Amino acid sequence: MKTKNLATLYDLPTLDWAPVAANLDRLTQAPGTGGPDRHSHWLTTVNADGSPHVTGIGAIWFDGAYWVVSGRSALKARNLERDPRCAVAVATADYDTVVDGTARLVTDREEVAEVSRRLNEGGWPCEPDASGTALTAPYSAPSAGPAPWHVYRVTPTRATALYVREEGGATSFEFD
After folding, report:
1. Where are the domains of the chain?
2. Cβ atoms 62, 117 nearer than 8 A
3. DSSP for residue 13
């Protein structure tokens, strides 16, 4: 991994990726876990005309990647399937983080089941649908449309983290 210290102007140290990733791994969207009252992730995709599309999403970080859930007919999913370049952003008490990467539709039943298990731990009672390749639940975001909802894995290519606690710091990371 290549790093670049973005805070040399203030003589701050280069951040390490491990604490940033550990912070992402702890996040849930369950009430009471962030602000306002939970952690919100934001996904940026590329529209067909090249303009950006930013939308709030359900996302979790594990196994070195973001896992995003969407109905395939939603604009964000259509954008990801046409052009997999995207970014996921989140602000936390310790770090503001943006992860750039490439997305792929997940159809492996074991991966979908693992995402479901982790989302359940985070407070969303989803489960794999009858095909095992998508998710269903009693509810989702009001704009999500009807189930099934599909899983996309966002493999990072680059990330930027700002340490927002005392001392501070800002570093970009390029993944191999």
Report:
1. 2-105+146-174
2. no
3. P
Q: How far apart are CA 92 and CA 103, in angstroms?
A: 23
Distance CA 170, CA 85 (A): 23
Backbone angles phi, psi at 88, to 5 degrees: -120, 130
Contact by Cβ (8 Å): 128, 117: no
pLDDT in tens, 96-133: 999 999 999 999 999 999 999 999 988 889 999 999 99
Burial of 34 (0-12, 13-18, 19+ CB in 10 A): middle
Contacts of 44 (CB under 8 A, 6+ apart): 52, 53, 54, 86, 87, 88, 89
Q: Which CATH architecture has domain 2-105+146-174?
A: Roll (2.30)
Full-model pTM: 0.93
Bridge-partner residues for 23, per DSSP?
A: none
Q: Which amino acid is at 47?
A: N
| Nearest CA among 156, 160, 155 for reference residue 172 | 160
* Residue 23 DSSP class: H
* H/E element, 98: strand 95-106
